[in-house]
Amino acid sequence: MKIRYDKTVDVLYIGIKDRPGIATEVSEGNFIRYGAGNGEIVGITILDFKERFIDQPRDPYYESLMKGSDTIITGQK
């Protein structure tokens, strides 16, 4: 799995499989990439990631879950 954030355009790319895919918007600004031919999920793209998820105020429940952790995104190499 590969995770890449492009700060110049505020887009988060999550590659699950290292192969081309066809993107389908599943909700506003959220895309799933499906492998050509087999329909398997090969990646996820989130537009305006920082604006939508990082810069927004958190509710107290979320903050209590995240307390003590400085990791936002993890992935395998």
Task: Explain the layout of strands and helices.
Blueprint: E1 2-6, E2 11-15, E3 21-27, E4 30-35, E5 41-47, H1 49-54, H2 60-66
Antiparallel strand pairs: 1-2, 2-5, 3-4, 4-5
Describe this structure in words.
The chain has a five-stranded antiparallel β-sheet, with no helix packed on it. Strand 3 and strand 4 form a beta hairpin. Helices cover 17% and strands 39% of the residues. The longest helix is centred in the C-terminal third of the chain and has 7 residues, at 60-66. The chain has helices at residues 49-54, 60-66; strands spanning 2-6, 11-15, 21-27, 30-35, 41-47. It has two helices and five strands. It has one domain (2-66). It is α+β, with helices and mostly antiparallel strands.
**Which sheet architecture does the biggest sheet show?**
5 strands, antiparallel
Which whole number gives the mean pLDDT?
Answer: 80
- Structural domains: how many: 1
What form results from the Cα inertia axes? elongated
Helix vs. strand class: alpha+beta
**Quick one: how many beta strands?**
5
The string of secondary-structure elements, in order, is: EEEEEHH
Amino-to-carboxy terminus distance? 6 Å
Supply the number of helical segments: 2
**Largest sheet strand order:** 1-2-5-4-3
Proportion of helical residues = 10-25%
Poorly predicted residue ranges: 68-77
Q: Indicate the radius of gyration in whole angstroms.
A: 14 Å
Assess the beta-strand content as a share of residues.
35-45%
